[in-house]
Each structure stands twice: as structure tokens, then as C-alpha cells.
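Lab manual, section 2.4: Encoding a predicted structure.

Procedure: take the sequence of the chain (488 residues), apply the prediction step described in section 2.3, and record the output as C-alpha cells. A sample record is shown.
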Amino acid sequence: MKPEDLLVKERVEKLKQIRKLGVNPYPSKFDKKDKADEIIKNYSKLKNEEHSKAKVKTAGKILAIREMGKASFVDIQDQTGKIQCFFREDEVKKKYALYKLLDIGDIIGVEGNPFRTKRGELSILVKDLFILSKSLKPLPDKWHGLKDVEERLRKRYLDIFTNPEVKEMYVKKAKYWQTIRNFLLSKGFLEVETPILENTTGGAAAMPFKTHHNTLDIDVFLRISCGELWQKKLLVSGFEKIFEIGRIFRNEGMDSEHLQDYSQMEFYWAYADFKDGMELVQEMYKLIAKEVLGTLKFTTRGYEVDLGKKWELYDYEKLIKEKTKVDIYKVSASDIRKKLDSLKMEYEKNADKWRLVDSLWKYCRKSLSGPGFLINQPVEVSPLAKRSEKDERKVEQFQVIIAGTELGNGYSELNDPLDQEERFKEQTKLKEAGDKEAHDFDESFVEALKYGMPPACGFGVSERFFAYLMDKPVRECQIFPLMKPEKR
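Recorded output:
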């Protein structure tokens, strides 16, 4: 029998003994009155060996048990922190038999008096003990723990419990989304919800997940954007400032920046353009960093970033020409392929010219630490953005550039229904030619535009920005990332 299986067997025997004592090892409720951090704060002025007459009642998971004859110290941990409990046979009396059946990993409730030990550690002199959940498997060793990344992600509940820094990261992630939500609400935006199941996918260049709706007997897709086309229909309806925070799904590859299932925020702002969007986004990003990290300066992916300095403007055409000597409006697709080969950049062999041009841009952006905005993208790579009045070949788009990557995308929204219809037709040709990421032709969206959509700015940012703030792969920043089933 494996050592772990032997431990499980021993704990199952203890479980039986707990039940023989007439104790339910898995009760429905416990009236927890005090948190660990509150007890530590409220009784911080107790002197060494001083006892308080006040009673506290708390609960947590056992981290350590240190036996000392007929007494012992037990460390328990709740969401707020760790506190030491002192068990003595003459204090807990009949419950001492129950105490002797406890193991590391059990969840217990205790009631007693705060005191400070000779060595100065604030503790609880336990008067009453309650078993709340008998654990049957041992926790990972505190010092060795879960080292394998796949094991950590698969058993994230243990990773969080044994690694305080992982737990703190998810507290920061909640703050990340709450900061975005509060910021937009303070600017007068209304939070909305739009469909996740769609008849046609829109709002991004990505491959969707496809499923079947049994009741309606139709194929549907999981959305690839956070309701972009739906939110713009809401602009048609008369709403002027709206946003959504929700899950999106893309059936594509996985790497340090990409996942198939993740959270994103998108806002749409009537009567504003991409320049207004850049100002708002810059203010929002600074606030996010300040709230999550406490500073505007951070190191990520080997880049030193300072969001407090002047944000640069990077011109798409000029930057590619400067970095690669390629004039994107004059070069042929075959010449771009040769250049990409010489730069050792991966690309799809049958991709059209503008997909290849975008691969050149991805090579160039690696040299940019930011912060800044990429502007003046070709209309062919952004079929939903408004054309530039200064140059019809380009669009009024802005992408946030930080640490060599794109961490947000926005533009002046295209509201000319005839132009939008033509661009959808071009995307349809690309899809028929084999481009799986080309946009679908959404007739209902074109119809909505024909009723009149005001000029507007739209913008989206995902949890990738949070991963960069943490300087970790985006997969490690998800609490429960999708995993292959474990082989048994």
C-alpha cells in the first residue's frame, strides 16, 4: 500500500471513532464570530503571560500540531490569517478525546480566551472544540508543497492554501476588475449583459467554438468578443455609455498570452472618437496599476514599465518601415514572406498579404517597452473601425502597447452601413479562401446600422493586462484554468 493510501486509511479509522463519540464530523453550520486577523488586532496589547477574560469563537484549517504531554499548540488558518490555539486536557475536558483524533488539514471551530504565551505569541486558550470537517487526505508539505506547474493548476485549491502569494494574486485580480467597473461607473457608463450564444460570431478576428442548440435545432457559437456588435446595437437604441465585463471564448492556441476561455471588458461611448478613448484608457490604466500594485512602475517580461511617463504614439506604417525596411503599401505578399523568413517569424503560409503584414508588426512591437498607443492601422486588418479622414487606407484605431505586446484595443466605430457591408463582403471572401479567423457577415448588425448609430469610440481589455501586471503567464492567473483530464 502506498504511504498516502495508508494515511487515508488511518484517517478513515479516526472518522469512525469520531462518529462513535456521537459527534457529526461534517456539521451543517458553525457560528463563527471572530476572524483570525480581528483577534490578533483586538488583543495586540496583551502582555506576555497575560490572559484576557473575553471570549472569542473562530474556525479554520489546522496547519500544525505540536504536542507537549497533556497539552499542545495547534495552528489554524482562516481567510484572514493564522492564529495559535492552546489545548489543555483540563480545559477542554470531555472534548479532549475528540482533540486526539485531529489531523493536519482538519477544519475545526474553537471557543476560548485570548492570551499571550511566555514567548510572546498571541494564542487562544481553548475551552470548547468543534470538528467541522475531517480531512481524509494530508496537505502538501509546507516546505516542498506542489512544485509541478501542472499539479499546481490542477489542484489550485491546495496551491492557494499553501502559497499565500497565490492567494494574494486572486485578491488583486478581484481588485483589478472592480477598479475597472468602478472607474467606468464613475464616468457615467451603464453596465449591460449581452448574449454568449450567438448565431454568427462578430467583433473580433478569431476562431469560435461551435455547439448545437437542441430546443431550437440550430448550430450556435460561443461569443469571441464581449458583445461588441450587441453593444453597438444598444448605441442605435439610444444608450450612450455602456460596458460589459464577461467571458469570451476562442478556439485557438495556448501560450503565455492566450487562452480559449477568459474574461474581458468592452465599453462603447457615443459621440466620442479614438482620441477621446486614448485619454480615458490612459487614465483607467494608471488607476488600475495604482490600485492593484500600489505603483505606476513595474517590471514584466524583462521590460521596465512606467505608466506615469508620457505615453508614446507609434505609427503602424512608419514603425514597420523603420524596423524592417518594408513599405507595407507597396510590397507584395511573396516579399513579405521572404522578410518574415529572414526574421525567423512564424506565419500561416496561405495567409493573405495583410495577415502577413500584421505578422511583421508583431515582430516590431517586441522592441517597444511602452507605454504607448499604436495608431494608423490599415483598414484591411480592422474591418469594424472607422476610416481615417486624413488617409482612406487607414483607420482611427488605437492599441495599448506595454512591454512589447498589445494590452487593449479600441477605435472610432464604423457607423457607415454601406462601408460596413462592403467590408463584411471582403471578410467573407477571405473566409471562403480558408481564413478561419475572418469576420462573419452579420446582416442583422448592418440592418441596425441602417437605422443610424451615433459616432462612437469602443475599447476592450482582457485579463492579459492583469497577467502582465503580475509578470506571470495568463494561464497561471486564472483560478481554475481548463486542463486535460488526469490519466488514472
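Check your result against the sample. The chain is about 35% helix and 25% strand.
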